[in-house]
Every structure is written in C-alpha cells, then in structure tokens.
User: What shape does this take?
Amino acid sequence: MRPISRRKLLTTGLAATAGLAGVTVATRLAERYGLIPPDHGGIYGPGETLTYAAQRLLTTHSLAREFSRSMISKSPFANETPPPNDAFKHLQASGFSDWRLSVDGMVARPASLSLPDLKSFPVHSQITEVTCEEGWSYIAEWIGTPLIEVLNAVGLSPQARYVAYFSIDKDWWESIDMADALHPQTFLTWGMNDGDLPVSFGGPLRMRVPRQLGYKSLKYVTRLTVTDTMKRFGKGLGSAEPESGYAWYAGI
Amino acid sequence: MRQEPCLISIPRGSATPVNDVCYPAPVAAAGSLPNPETPRHAAVVRVTHWITVISFFALLISGAEIVVSHPRFYWGEVGNVMTRPLFTLPIPSSRDTVPTGYGYVLPDQNGWSRYLHFQAAWAVVLTGLVYGISSLWSGHFRESLFPAPADRTWRAFWEVIAKYLRRAPPDEAEAYSYNVIQRIAYLVVIFVLFPLVIWTGLALSPAFDSAVPAAVTALGGRQSARTLHFFVSGALLLFLVVHVAMVVLAGFRSRMRAMITGRASVPRERILERT
Assistant: This one.
C-alpha cells in the first residue's frame, strides 16, 4: 500500500467538501422550485426525487401523445374495479343525477358541482393512452372538463401547490402538483368514446392524467381539495399509493 | 511491422512475430510485462464496475418482479388482456386479471420493485456517465477496448475463438489486457446494449414520451418498446452469465483480485502448474 500523498489528501478533501456543499445547495434549490415529491423519504427517496425533479425540469408543459381516431382500442380493458359501496349504488340507482363534486381548500369560492354543472364548462376531448404500471395499455377518447377550467372558476389561491382528489371509496385518493393540475390534458372526465363514461372505466366521473400511469387517473371522483402541502393528508406521502408502496409521482 | 514500444504482446500460436498483436501497456515499464505497481484496472473502472454490478442485480430482480404482474408481451402501441399477445411467458402472475393457466396468484411486489428499478436505473446511468467521461479522458476506450488495427480481421477473431474452443488456458498477457473477442463484447455492451436498454426504458415513461415522442414512436409504439426492453435486458443477462463463466474459467481469484484491488498477477494455480 502506497502512502497517500499530501496533494491527494488535499484534493480529495476539497472534492468531498465541494460535493457536500453541492448537495446542500441542490436540496435548497429543489425545495424552492418544487422539485421534491411528498414521498421523498425512505430508501427509495433519492431515486424518486431524481425522477420527479428531472421530469419537472424537462416536461412541465409538454403534451401527452394524442392518437388518431382509428387507433382507439376496439376492446379496452377496464381493469379490476373496487366493488361499488352502498353510497355509490344509491347514486347509481338514480342515474347519478345526485352525484356531486365538491371543491374546497385554498380556493376563493368553494363549490359543489353536479355533472350538468361540469358539462356546462367548455367541453374538451383527447384521444390518449391509458398506461398501467403492470405494463398493459389501451387508447380511448376521453371527453370532459379540463381541471384548469374548474380551478379558475373557483378562484385558485396563489399558494396552491397540490390538488388532492378523492374517490367515493375512501381508501382511494390521489394528488397531483400544479404542473399537472393546470395542464390542459388533465380532465375531469365524464365521457368516453362518444358516450357516457362507463362505470367500469370510472363513470360517472374520473380524473384523467395522461402524462402519468393509470393509477393517477382515479375513478369515481367526488371531491377536490386544493392545498399547499400534502403533509396533512393520510400519512403525508401524497396519496394512498405510497402508503401501499407505490410511487406518488407516476410519470416515471 | 512490430510497433514500438510493445509492452504487451499476445503471441498468435505459431505465427511469426510480425503477426503478433501489440497493445501498449497503460504506463511505461521496464521488461516485457507491465510494472506490477500499475493497476490492471484503474480505480474508476473498478468502482464503477462494482456499482454497476449492484445496480444491475437490483434492476434484474425488480424488472423480473414487474414482468410477473403482466407476463404477456405485445407489438405496436397498445396491448392488454383483451388483445392478442406476441408471446406469453409460461409463468404465474401477481394479478388475477391475467389469464395464465395457473390456479393461483403471486403476491404483488410491484410497489418496491418499481421504486427500486428506477433508483437503480439512476445509479447505473450516473455511474455510466462517470465511467464514459473518465474513459474518454484517460484513453481507456482507445487503449483497453478498441481492438488494435492488426486485430480487426476475421482471422484474428477466429484465432481467439479457436483458442476458446480448444479450451486453452489464457495467455499470461491476458491477465494484463483483453483479447479481441473480449474487446468486441465489452464494446457491444457499453455502446449498444446499455444505450438501447436505457432508451427502451425511457420510452416506457409517459411523461418522458410527452417531451420526446420520437423516443417511443421510433420503436414502433409503447408495447414494442416494452418488448424490446425485455429482450435487450435478456441480452445483458446473457452477457452477465458468459462474463462470469469466463472469469471462473480464467481463474476466479486472480480476475476478482484484479477487479477489486487492481493488482494483476500470474494466477497461483498456473505457477503451480509450471513447477
């Protein structure tokens, strides 16, 4: 073993100090620019934070691929749907005429919107792919109200950082950051392939987040909450998915 | 013409010295073999090698777990249990929505597998960047991996292959330098398979595809990218198996010592053979 020279010791020490300082500064900057996901803790935190930060720097405004009408899947796959609970069955019996979407949190005018209320906003459609984390996918036309229209109508607070959204099944809730919440392709979806959104695909109301994996496109949405932190929701990891071991940010 | 200075020469069987292949040793040294103080593998090569080993195993295990949740592969843009697969792996699945023919469903491991897969992917990509930049800087690619001009012939390939087929023990020089087949194998892994596996993996990211749609459309669609990712990973696994087998055949202890401590020496077993 050769003795370590003074020069080598000095340069190594300087490099280590610079590296540590670099990481500290990077963390400060990342916090300031919203590049740290709610599930940044734990052993997989570094990878998750790198992924989220890289995507936020690269893809904040990019649009998910849209497809031609001929690419729409003839037999889309609905995946497992949770057994409808009593509240859902009750609303289903009356044709979802009493379905409400409540909007609260950091908004000027909290609201409770019916499906016809939502349909009175400008109607948009997109032909995009649903990509499941398991590996399968299908393409469908999604018709709905861009989330940004609803957020603008209720008066979004400038402090808003996340939109949390909840299913009628209380075990299922999700959240997205403002980059995805204000993204023109993020829809409150009530129609699919020129018809009503079928229950198996999340009808009567499903969040559609085409730049992330399917599990962010939550089915049976009944409530939106605008917030500046996800710490107060569940275990504070951003959504129900990280609590069962799945990443909060699903854009990969 | 014999190049000067030739510090490592790999004799080609009974050929005349004119046909010898000459690779320069990393650092000038007296005698026909490099200075024993000169490491066989530079520190950056050793460190990046072992980080890659750990990351690759993490990617392999987590990747296999992810495949288990949907062991069907498709071609084109879309594919799901309602469409015809290109092929199906004859294994059970961790999802009861997948028809596998097995009467049971494996436990769901996708959560940690996906977290680990992407964390290990970052580790291997960042390590690869350090390795690539430092290798360009130090001349590692040029000196240790690109075959010497005299070796860029079918005859040279064939001689090395014939030697492998005869199961001849490696030359002493091969403890200090790679032969042409090794060089080609490493170059394919570094410049073809790793870039391909990163590309096909990135193409599976819906957010990345929104920024760079060509990443997925050039591969023929999302499901094609997934299928290609599977096959390129298989090619890397094949490399790993052959690589480890060759290390064992060449002398596990000496090759491991060279990649851990950097020190190369004639394997003890071969010294014993000669005495």
